[in-house]
Amino acid sequence: MKRFIYKAREQGTNKVIKGTIQAENERVAGKLLVDRGYVPDSLREEGSGFGDKLNHVAGADRINFTRQFATLVGAGLPIAQSLRTVSEQTSNKAMKAVIEEILADVEAGHSLGDAFGKHPEVFSNVYLSLIKAGEVSGTLDESLKRIASQEEKDAKMMSSIKGALVMPLITLGVIFVVFLYMMLEVVPQVEGLYSDLGEELPAFTQFLVGIKDFILGFWWLCILIVAGLVVGFLQYRKTESGIKTAATFKLNVPMFNGLFRMLYMARFTRISQILLSTGVSVLDTLSIAGESTNNVVVYGEVKEAMEKVQGGKPMSEALKGHQYILPLVYQMAAIGEQSGKMDEMLGKAAQVFEDDLDEKVAAISSAIEPVMMILLAILAGGLVGGILFPIYSLVNTIG
Questions:
Q1: Crossing angle between the packed helical segments 187-197 and 342-398, to the nearest 10 degrees
Q2: In 10 A of CB 243, how many CB atoms?
Q3: What is the pLDDT of residues 291-308, one digit of tens each?
Q4: Alpha-carbon distance 336 to 351, whole Å?
Q5: Are the C-beta atoms of 259 and 364 separated by less than 8 Å?
Q6: Which is deepest, 91, 210, 333, 380, by most CB within 10 Å?
């Protein structure tokens, strides 16, 4: 399914509406708009315009909007007035445009859930489900606060994980720069020195010279190979097979597998707790929480659990026996079923995973630094050895 950005007019009122719609192609998207009572003015696939990248709604902008909206609604202001006030205080143009479209839909008589639902590129399924649940139960401000808290926790977890990956990437960059410098600047000088003296280079140094000659003689081929590999990898990542391969790799890559498994279970249990506490059904909770993990392999296991729940099994039994659903999840679910406090028990499980995740990130960060330093030392040592050894041998020969 593709996503299209549209500008249309409501039939009968000519009121201009902007938003996004999912469809197989542009013709189907236009037909869907007509069926909804709109007359399309413009329609284009999302991502086809340069402005799409400029008008991006960041997670921080969405969290700030949610916090402000929750505060105003909780203070007793009407929804329309709350949206208008938040819009006036929002500096991000993309977020401001989204809020204004939501406001226009609300003033036109649409429910808040439907108005938010027109912007799936900004608001996740979890977000939309909590909005609808809060609207129906009359606890919209509480739902909004829960959404903002969850997104802040998720952003903090992702920031910690990205921070753990920064050092390896920097070290790899340093290794690459050192390698190029030695190959292109130092090795040619050693080769020239031996050539002037009519001496034969040692075998390892000849190997380094061969690499240098290949880089200088076929630099264009090196660029093409690297570019081809990058483009091919990015294209493969978009395929169904590529998405599944990447998801499986994250769950099983050495050193990081425990990290990602905890991350996905922390998301799953925290979202489940929030949804169940607002009255969302178990099946809908499993579906939304499973999708929120952003891992198709884990979501596939949750789907299998959903089928068992539909067949009459309790949630704890349905979640048991899957490779990537950690035991604490179904153990706490079982306690929740017995005590009637399922949301509370899953919340406790989420807290355990989040605490363990912080410790895991710290441990990995501490373990990665010496490993990368050792790799850097081995590479630099090998290159320096391949350069200094022939010079030392040459000095001994001359002496």
A1: 20
A2: 15
A3: 888 889 999 999 999 999
A4: 15
A5: yes
A6: 333
Measure the CA dihedral 103/104/107/108, to 10°: -150
For 83-137, how does the pLDDT look when each residue is reduced to its tens digit (9 = 90+)? 999 888 888 888 888 888 888 888 888 888 888 888 887 887 778 877 887 777 7
Spatial CA neighbour of 331 closest among 352, 311, 312, 310: 352
Please give the order of strands across the beta sheet that includes 38-45.
16-23, 2-10, 38-45
> Does the fold of domain 150-399 match that of domain 2-54?
no
- DSSP label at 34? H
**Token output for 65:** 């909007």
The answer to whether 303 and 290 have CB atoms below 8 angstroms apart is: yes
- Give the count of beta carbons closer than 10 Å to the beta carbon of residue 229: 10
CATH fold of 150-399, please? Receptor-associated Protein (1.20.81)
- Hey, which residues does 2 pair with through a beta bridge? 23
Residue type, 311: G
Give tens-digit pLDDT for 133-150. Answer: 777 777 788 888 878 887
DSSP 8-state code for residue 202: P
DSSP per residue, 18-57: EEEEEESSHHHHHHHHHHTTEEEEEEEETTSSTHHHHS--
Residue-range domain boundaries for the chain: 2-54, 150-399
- 17 CB-contact burial (10 Å; exposed 0-12 / middle 13-18 / buried 19+): buried
The pair of structure tokens assigned to 181 is 């410098």
Q: Which pair of structure tokens corresponds to residue 31?
A: 């037909």
Exposed/middle/buried for residue 239 (C-beta within 10 Å: 0-12, 13-18, 19+): exposed
**What is the C-alpha to C-alpha distance for residues 30 and 253, in angstroms, rounded to an integer?**
44
Residue 52 has pLDDT above 60, yes or no: no
Architecture label for domain 2-54: Roll (3.10)
